[in-house]
Amino acid sequence: MNSPELLDILSAASLLLLITSVSLFLRLGLGKPLLISAFRMVVQLFLLAYILGWLFKADNLAVTLTAMIAMAGFAGAEVVARQEQPPGRLWTGLVGVTAMLSAGLVVTLPALVLLSGESNLWSPRVALPVFGMVAGASMTGVALALDTFAQGVLQDARAIEAQLALGAARMAALRPIIRQAVARGMMPTINAMAAIGVVTIPGMMTGQLLAGAEVFAAAKLQMLLMFLIAGATGLGTLGATYAMAYRVTDSRHRLRLERLRLRT
Fold first, then answer.
1. For residues 136 and 7, what is the distance between their CA atoms, to the nearest angstrom?
2. How far lies 149's CA from each of 77, 85, 146, 174, 250, in Å?
3. Do the Cβ atoms of 52 and 128 come closer than 8 Å?
4. Pair 248, 235: CB distance under 8 Å
5. DSSP-assigned letter for residue 199
6. Quick one: pLDDT at residue 182?
7. Is 69 or 115 the better-scoring residue by pLDDT?
8. pLDDT per residue over 97-113, tens digit each?
9. Which of 91-95, 116-120, 196-200, 203-207 has the weakest average pLDDT?
10. Would you kindly state where each structural domain of the chain is located, as residue ranges?
11. pLDDT at 264
12. Residue 255 in 3-state DSSP?
């Protein structure tokens, strides 16, 4: 498939102008955020192409790991930005970064062993796209789980404190909220797996097909990546939720709502 020219891209972008016009007419308020997001996407993709070109030429372990840590850092910032009530921005960001980075590396390493073959295991050309997909999916799951957990603790604070006063351990008192948070964090991944092949042709498989890959080979690669994404999302969501459960309680099994309401 040939690379699209600038005129082709502008033609596709004209659809945004149509949507913006409809938004203005109906007073939906979508025009400005849509155009800003589109502009950010263009700038970010050009920067990404430039940076990836340099990373692919460098091709060593230190560069690959540094890039992964940076990607996890940006993802952590996005996790914080998506929280209505983050229990400390620094803490939330560190929890998100740690959960995504550790879970992402755990599941990415087996994929690199399978995909790299005889070539360099940590080649940025293979490692970074795989880690990016895994970390991106984990980011969504972690953000949803932490937001659900925080809102659940605030809403059920009296019931939780009553259980703690009656002698319940902190994890036992928080278990229903933890269960709800993890379930919500996993829901996008579960829905994505259920819809693949029936409603959507996923991005990786589409890319492989456009590049001329054999259809069954593309399907098997997509299966591998979706299993990795589901595993990383599950591990990251569980880790982040339990870390936050310890954050909003103390060793004496008391609920510390002031930590949940801290905005700095």
1. 30
2. 18, 10, 5, 9, 17
3. yes
4. no
5. T
6. 93
7. 69
8. 788 778 777 777 777 77
9. 116-120
10. 1-58, 60-261
11. 46
12. strand
How far is it, in rounded angstroms, from Cα 68 to Cα 101?
8
Q: Which residue type occupies 74?
A: F
Residues ≥6 apart with Cβ < 8 Å to 63: 55, 124
Dump pLDDT digits (tens) for 233-242.
Answer: 888 899 889 9
Question: Nearest-5° angle of CA 209, CA 51, CA 62?
Answer: 100
H helical segments located in the chain: 6-26, 31-58, 61-81, 89-116, 124-155, 157-165, 170-195, 203-210, 215-247, 257-261
Angstrom distances, CA of residue 162 to CA of 154, 230, 253:
14, 36, 12
Task: Give residue-wise pLDDT tens across range 168-218.
Answer: 888 999 999 999 999 999 998 898 888 887 777 777 777 777 777 788 888
User: What CA–CA distance (Å, rounded) separates 205 from 207?
Assistant: 5
d(CA 179, CA 152): 11
Task: Provide CB contacts within 8 A for 225, sequence distance 6+.
Answer: 111, 130, 133, 134, 204
**Are 145 and 237 within 8 A, CB to CB?**
yes
Alpha carbon of residue 47 to chain centroid: 20
Query: Any idea which residue has 């890039």 for tokens?
Result: 67
Residues 7, 43: Cα–Cα separation, whole Å: 17
Pull the structure tokens for residue 56: 């692919």
Kindly report the pTM of this predicted structure: 0.76
HEC-encoded secondary structure of 57-71: HHCCHHHHHHHHHHH
Residue among 35, 59, 55, 36 nearest 47 (CA): 55
